[in-house]
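Hi C.,

You asked whether I'd gotten around to modeling the 308-residue construct. I have! Everything is below, sequence then structure, no commentary in between.
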Amino acid sequence: MQGDWRPATLTDVIDRPILAAGAVVWRPVGDRLEVLVIHRSRHDDWSLPKGKLDPGEHLAAAAVREVLEETGLAVRLGPPVTAHEYEPRTDPGRTKRVAYWSAEPLDDTRASTADYQPNDEVDEVRWLGLPAAAGVLTYPRDVVVLERFEESVRANEHRSSPLVVLRHGSAQDRAEWGRDDRDRPLTAEGREQAEAVVRLLSAYGIDGVLSSDAERCVQTVQPFATEAGVEIDRDVRWSEQDARRRDVATAGAALRHSGRRLVLCTHRQVLPWVFEGLRVAPVSLEPGGFQVLHRRKGELVSLEPRFA
């Protein structure tokens, strides 16, 4: 038996935190902002929309799904706000870890709650100004989340243009391929990774897809591009064979100043030059792994923590 592997025990399960995600959903009303709060009938409390992850789900995708399920609003994520931990009343002895994002309704006409239909969990939703929202929230930990959001508003960092830097999914073994490396496709695992990234990119409202011209990169972003109805911008500058440090860094710097919501799919060897151009520390990504950066007017608003 290699390494320190051992079967999971009951203690492992109990000690493992319960992961959840939510959002501070906001809208402009005149010269102020309002945020969305929910009333949960079962707990008789006021809180921010949030919920536990589905198996295999990323936190960002879970945040968007939970907002839709609890409030009926489709949203897209902005920068992360904060995360906190607590012991849930329904599962004493466990730790629940909740990550929150800033989020905007996709359609202003849907930001109205006039037609809201109560469900099994949430029986009322309200848009409130920040002071009023802080006044009705039941738990101090949610007030802290709201305070962190208010700090980001004062710094004008509550909205952004996300950039997802993505390494292509697992591909067929190079030594066994024996043909043009540009044509080397994804494995079954890589195709699963490509499908898994669809909901993540949708959560950020990505509307532009950049990719190396290599087949394994194109296949990684194709499921999302198909679902979103966008074209893939294939460029040899991002390819393993043709990438040059200066060109990639220059292109990365241009991405920093772009106001579009973008995903860039490239190769392990090219990633350090991309991060150099973006002026952030390089991140080592596994096949199908990604890093999310938030930009505003050419400045980096935030680099997302690696929540999951």
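If it helps when you're writing up: The chain has two domains: 10-154, 161-303.

Thanks,
B.
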